[in-house]
């Protein structure tokens, strides 16, 4: 419930955007100047041109709508501009059986700009890196040594490392794509740091992104957005399997890294369930996640943009994957999300899920402002074999929410 929080100093609230323009002498660790130099090469008009070119790419969807195999929907909450973004890219990397999906939850003064930038640029960087890594000589032992064994997620919601010797069928793809995820995320974060007109010092975004190729699923996660699988158990009952870990500051592995880097982790008395990351000597910015793109005020104090990469081998029992920002997970359980998606036609699944989350916010937290929500539902079986799910041939651009 809230990605970042302003601190207090001398009984005065520090507005989050002030951090980027306050001097070190005022006991807030910030950059020396908040003014950004805008060069002609990186001007907003150039970015707008590139963005329009991206929007015309076949199979790339970022607005509310659906296809035969996916549906996506976002709605602005009550906190201001919608800082969530989403994407479905079919035939990803010019591969007919590959799909890229992602949701991005921005935060901070320019979080909406960061989320959109990552939505537009990360898939391009991943595709380019994937193609580069795939051209390397097959059976390269150096890559196998550098990359840890695939993180497999089993149906009991536990995570374990499998023996590479038993994974000959998808070894190479996992190794290549994991390398590609790691490099693409690193380059993306570096680009944000050098961006000429998006100030990412106290703004950032989460990202949970996946690539599905055939029956292989690779997921890269930064932050506390989440991916959940709807699948059938041995008794053919529909169950939820969480595919990612919410990378919160109080997770032991995350907390250890942050504290070794002199960052502080604690929860406020007014919200004891939400642990946040704070600067060493100032009660700001109060980031409610341990990993994120951007937020460079905390990058020296334990915050990282390295993705947690995992692998899942799909079976015939797996029906759909749901990616959603924390506006959904804060109020709905994994089981509620899977049941909601399964109860409606696939073309309206994402919108119905956002509707359910909005109602849950008003019921559970009547005094709180409803958070932005973004949902992507990727269906794993063809509509011909799915029951009670109609086809929708064209992507519909519902402009109910205008992404800015």
Automatic annotation (TrEMBL):
Name the InterPro entries for this protein: PP2C, PPM-type-like_dom_sf, PPM-type_phosphatase-like_dom
- CDD domains, per the entry: PP2Cc (cd00143)
Enumerate the SUPFAM superfamilies for this protein: PP2C-like
Q: Which GO terms describe its molecular function?
A: protein serine/threonine phosphatase activity
- Per UniProt, what is one Pfam family of this protein? PP2C
Q: Where is the PPM-type phosphatase domain?
A: 69-380
Classification via PANTHER family: PROTEIN PHOSPHATASE (PTHR47992)
Task: Report what the protein is called.
Answer: Probable protein phosphatase 2C 33
| Species, as recorded | Cucurbita maxima
Source taxonomy:
Eukaryota, Viridiplantae, Streptophyta, Embryophyta, Tracheophyta
């Amino acid at each position: 419930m809230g990605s970042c929080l302003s601190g207090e100093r001398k009984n005065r609230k520090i507005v989050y955007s002030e951090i980027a323009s306050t001097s070190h002498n005022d006991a807030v660790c910030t950059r020396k100047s908040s003014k950004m130099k805008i060069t002609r090469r990186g001007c907003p008009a150039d970015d707008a041109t590139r963005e329009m070119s991206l929007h015309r790419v076949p199979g790339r969807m970022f607005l509310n709508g659906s296809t035969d195999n996916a549906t996506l929907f976002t709605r602005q909450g009550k906190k201001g501009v919608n800082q969530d973004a989403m994407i479905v890219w079919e035939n990803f990397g010019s591969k007919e059986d590959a799909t890229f999906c992602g949701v991005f939850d921005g935060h901070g003064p320019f979080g909406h700009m960061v989320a959109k930038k990552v939505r537009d640029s990360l898939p391009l960087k991943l595709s380019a890196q994937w193609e580069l890594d795939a051209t390397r000589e097959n059976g390269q032992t150096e890559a196998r040594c550098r990359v840890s064994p695939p993180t497999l997620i089993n149906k009991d919601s536990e995570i374990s490392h499998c023996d590479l010797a038993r994974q000959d069928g998808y070894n190479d793809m996992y190794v290549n794509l994991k390398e590609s995820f790691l490099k693409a995320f690193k380059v993306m974060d570096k680009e944000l740091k050098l961006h000429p007109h998006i100030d990412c010092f106290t703004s950032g975004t989460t990202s949970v992104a996946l690539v599905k190729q055939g029956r292989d699923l690779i997921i890269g996660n930064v932050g506390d957005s989440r991916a959940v699988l709807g699948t059938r158990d041995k008794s053919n009952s529909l169950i939820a399997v969480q595919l990612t870990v919410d990378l919160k500051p109080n997770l032991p592995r995350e907390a250890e890294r942050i504290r070794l880097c002199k960052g502080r982790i604690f929860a406020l008395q007014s919200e004891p369930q939400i642990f946040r990351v704070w600067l060493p000597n100032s009660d700001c910015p109060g980031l409610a996640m341990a990993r994120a793109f951007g937020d460079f005020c905390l990058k020296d104090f334990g915050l990282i943009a390295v993705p947690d990469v995992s692998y899942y081998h799909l079976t015939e029992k797996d029906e759909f994957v749901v990616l959603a920002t924390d506006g959904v997970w804060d109020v709905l359980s994994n089981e509620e999300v899977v049941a909601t998606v399964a109860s409606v036609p696939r073309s309206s699944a994402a919108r119905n899920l956002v509707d359910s989350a909005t109602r849950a916010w008003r019921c559970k937290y009547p005094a709180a402002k409803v958070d932005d929500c973004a949902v992507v539902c990727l269906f794993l079986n063809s509509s011909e074999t799915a029951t009670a799910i109609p086809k929708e041939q064209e992507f519909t651009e519902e402009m109910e929410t205008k992404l800015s």
